[in-house]
Fold this sequence. Notes:
Elements: E1 11-14, H1 29-44, E2 49-54, E3 60-72, H2 78-81, E4 88-99, H3 108-124, E5 131-135, H4 139-146, E6 151-153, E7 156-163, H5 164-172
Parallel strand pairs: 4-5
Antiparallel strand pairs: 1-2, 2-3, 3-4, 5-7, 6-7
Helix pairs in contact: 3-5
Amino acid sequence: xxxxxxxxxxxxxxxxxxxxxxxxxxxxxxxxxxxxxxxxxxxxxxxxxxxxxxxxxxxxxxxxxxxxxxxxxxxxxxxxxxxxxxxxxxxxxxxxxxxxxxxxxxxxxxxxxxxxxxxxxxxxxxxxxxxxxxxxxxxxxxxxxxxxxxxxxxxxxxxxxxxxxxxxxxxxx
Length: 173
């Protein structure tokens, strides 16, 4: 996957206090609430990093939030965990991703996911992790991520993962 090219008139920037995050609506109240009330606080506390996709009118067309975390060895599929130490393992977390209802259907979700995975891959060159983990808000979100080779973690159908080897292969293609 080569570098992500944004459509003309769009820019991707770190979340800032001056951006109109309270006007964002992706149709999912939980996702909206995160961006409206928590994303900036978590970013200020260095718990996560959020990037926003700004449209030409400076409205937030979409966003994603990344964080780091750990997953227990036993929570991973056996084929991934087989050669790993039996302890908590480092992961990258795609905590949130949303596209404004005004821009849904324009493939911006694909662009944001591609860029978030690129960010994870590049961070992984310095801070290693075994997988990218995310939690789906519903079946529609789950099918979106599964098109990108995310798979279910055993026993948790809405927690998906993409192992670091698959991510590296995506970045090389």
